[in-house]
Specification:
By secondary structure, the protein is an alpha/beta fold. Helix content is 34%, strand content 26%. The strands form three sheets. The protein has a five-stranded mixed beta sheet with strand order 2-1-3-10-4, sandwiched between helices. Helix 10 runs parallel beside helix 11. The radius of gyration is 19 Å and the shape is globular.
Length: 307
């Protein structure tokens, strides 16, 4: 890879570019070893960024944030694609490989509300902004007397909509708020057991072509193995469920004493039924653990989570 220039493809949002910079820093650590002379970031506009007023499920699903970047990767216009893993479909695009994950950012969910109120202190019929059925149903589990309204756009846009009195509170991921240095806005932080995050929340994924041996070797060095093991379990659950944007499912894995603690909750389409599972397995059985949990969830829910 002598005197090689590496081009990283990323969405152009402020947060996506912060994630791309993180990836760039990690890659630069191995510049000498791999003969890399320069690493540059290329901004790519995605369909998900262009359409801001509809649910992702209604306009094509998760791939709207990753497809445009993947096309550039397949066309060899970039060498590495950087994605927020939670925005990626569970099925890998033919010709590509996603096998590198940076150390996970804080995976928890947060509430930002007017007057800095906690969820329990919001007035009945307060309007909560979220674009996620999962978050909506999880919050309904705690407060049945609130109202829910679609919100799209980047973090700054959502906070502005809250300040413009279009919502009384919004639910977001801690990772995004923290990366943007907007922690002062947080009204409440939920533990991962209070609100189970979506699979891969807080994880930055690096993708390359599956025949680019040099990039594969480089990304092996960059990969954070603890995070990778957790992701294997979480994404395996989703794969079995064939989870998409309309699937209200939370999945979270953590590792202690070489054991993976995996927890998941799945809601029926209307959110009226909740199916909750926990399991503990050896780290080297992460994929199988996720598959088994996915199969059990599918069975106990009787496919009520799918149209």
């Amino acid at each position: 890879m002598k005197n090689r220039k590496i081009i990283i493809g990323s969405r152009g949002s402020k947060l996506a570019l912060i994630y791309a910079e993180k990836a760039k820093e990690k890659i630069i650590n191995f510049a000498n070893e791999f003969g890399i002379e320069e690493v540059v970031i290329k901004k790519i506009v995605t369909t998900g960024d262009q359409i801001q007023n509809k649910r992702l499920a209604d306009i094509g699903g998760k791939g709207l944030f990753s497809n445009s970047i993947e096309v550039e990767l397949l066309d060899k216009k970039i060498d590495i694609a950087v994605h927020a893993l939670k925005d990626m479909p569970t099925e890998e695009t033919e010709g590509l490989l996603t096998n590198c994950f940076l150390e996970r950012n804080d995976p928890r969910e947060i509430l930002i509300s007017k007057n800095n109120k906690h969820l329990k202190d919001l007035a009945p019929n307060s309007i909560i902004g979220t674009s996620s059925f999962r978050r909506e149903f999880q919050i309904k589990k705690i407060r049945k007397d609130l109202k829910y309204k679609l919100i799209r756009g980047n973090v700054d846009t959502r906070i502005k909509k809250l300040n413009d009195n279009l919502y009384d509170a919004i639910i977001l991921s801690y990772a995004g708020i923290n990366s943007l240095g907007l922690n002062k806005n947080i009204s409440q932080t939920f533990s991962t057991s209070e609100i189970i995050p979506c699979a891969g929340q807080g994880v930055i994924a690096l993708q390359c072509r599956n025949n680019d041996e040099e990039m594969i070797e480089l990304l092996k060095k960059v990969n954070h193995q603890y995070t990778h093991n957790c992701i294997k379990a979480e994404r395996s659950v989703l794969k079995v469920l064939k989870g998409d944007c309309e699937t209200a499912v939370g999945v979270f894995a953590s590792i202690e004493d070489n054991k993976i603690n995996l927890e998941a909750e799945l809601f029926s389409l209307d959110g009226s039924e909740r199916f909750h599972l926990k399991s503990v397995q050896d780290v080297d059985k992460a994929v199988q653990q996720g598959i088994e949990m996915g199969k059990t969830l599918k069975k106990v829910s009787n496919n009520s989570y799918k149209k």
